[in-house]
Amino acid sequence: MKINWFSPLPPARTDIAHYTTRILPALAARAEVTLWTDQRDWDQGLGKLVEVRNFRLGRMPWVELNRATANVYQIGNNPLFHSSIWQISRLHSGIVVLHDFRLHHFFDDIFRVKWRDLQSYCGVMENYYGEEGRRDAIESFKSNARNISYMAERYPLTELAIRNQLGVIVHTPETYEALVPGAQCPIMLAPLPFAAGVQSALPRASQNAPYRLIVFGYIGRSRRLPAVLKALATLPEQAKFHLDVYGDILDGEEVLQAQIRAHNLNERVTIHGFVNEAKLDEALARAHLAINLRHPTMGEASGSQLRIWKHSLPALVSNVGWYASLPPETVAFVRTDDNEVADLQQYLRAFVAQPETFSEMGRRGRQELETKHAPEQYASSLVELIELSRKFRPRVAANRLAERSGSLLAEWLAPSSLVSSAGNIAKEIFEIGTIQNESR
């Protein structure tokens, strides 16, 4: 089996790049894998395990893509890392790994920011969401997407990312349940992979105060740092805690520093910035409690949470999306909105009173990681989906041909005759696809 794997690669600052490195050994043991990236620089160590190739949209080696058993496309919400991959998937069907359910931020950046194409944006929105979707698209476009949170929640545009594909892998029950009813191809739910590895030998800091809290990752507004700072600032027991923040601050470190000063937390919070994997693992091994809030969620699973569990570290998580589906003995749930600060403070007080209860939570989290998130299980699921998807090739090819035929007809025929002609052609194409499918 030969697989072309399109993905951001380290050192790209996205967990999807790390996800690829986590699954790669198990996948390479089952198939011949070629990594494809549009980055100028990538971790050269990957070349010791598989071939790594660079691609450009304008000069794709389509023959090589056709020779593969499957082309696997990683699709997430950041257009910097996934725009080119999505555009290739539109031209050559394959397996889409859907890392986020709500993708409106992604497509807004493509249609509005990059292409400035209101007509195509409105056409897509009307196709999936009717006239109301079209009206809201026009409003959003004209306002420079000031209502983007509303648009993402109401119009996720997930279907556009998986249209005419041979199969889809999702990582959350929410995404699976949303996509299966209208699916035109196989949908497989596979827990996000993360090798548990050997338990860290680094000693956890003393169980005496101050206890080390940790927030890490790609930190935007959804990570709820202002709420964390408010909870710490107004907590009578604040002297018993110290908060370490690791990662890129997407709104700017200066903004976060100003918030820390406003809450008089200079002695209680340390911003470390982006660090390499080894230093982050060391920090997690020495921490007492992780804070992994995510609200609003784009429907993603959390590689950060799996990394937390790797270190048997207890965690506070938002009670939404994938996080809400986690076993209650493995995490502590924080309600959103008006309850957020109160819940954070309640758990911090409980930690001071009974730290061993939280330690047990961390141990059960690691058991969850070992049981359900092994890369070998994930690689086997992917190979199974690739085999299952083969029978869908004729149908997808027929769909693409029908769409292309309709586009050409629109250029040549009058509207009065377009519908009947398109219908006849679509019927013929469908029958051809059905005959090919039955003969396989």
Task: Describe the overall structure.
The protein is built from 18 helices and 13 strands. The chain has 440 residues and is an alpha/beta fold. It folds into three domains: 2-194 and 377-390, Rossmann fold; 211-373, 3-Layer(aba) Sandwich (Rossmann fold); 392-438. The protein has a seven-stranded parallel sheet with strand order 3-2-1-4-5-6-7, with helices on both faces. A six-stranded parallel sheet has the order 10-9-8-11-12-13, with helices on both faces. Helix 13 links the parallel strand 12 (315-318) and strand 13 (332-334). Helix 1 crosses helix 16, helix 9 (225-233) crosses helix 14 and helix 14 (340-353) crosses helix 15 (355-372). The two termini are 19 Å apart.
Query: What is the fold-level CATH name, i.e. the topology of the largest domain?
Result: Rossmann fold
Number of strands: 13
Number of domains: 3
**Which word captures the global form?**
globular
Low-confidence regions: none
Side by side, the strands of the main sheet go: 3-2-1-4-5-6-7
Radius of gyration: 24 Å
Return the structural class: alpha/beta
The appropriate CATH architecture of the largest domain is 3-Layer(aba) Sandwich
DSSP helix fraction: 40-55%
The portion of residues forming beta strands comes to 15-25%
Biggest pleated sheet: 7 strands, parallel
Total count of helical runs of at least 4 residues: 18
Mean pLDDT: 90
The CATH class of the largest domain turns out to be Alpha Beta
**Terminal Cα separation, in Å?**
19 Å
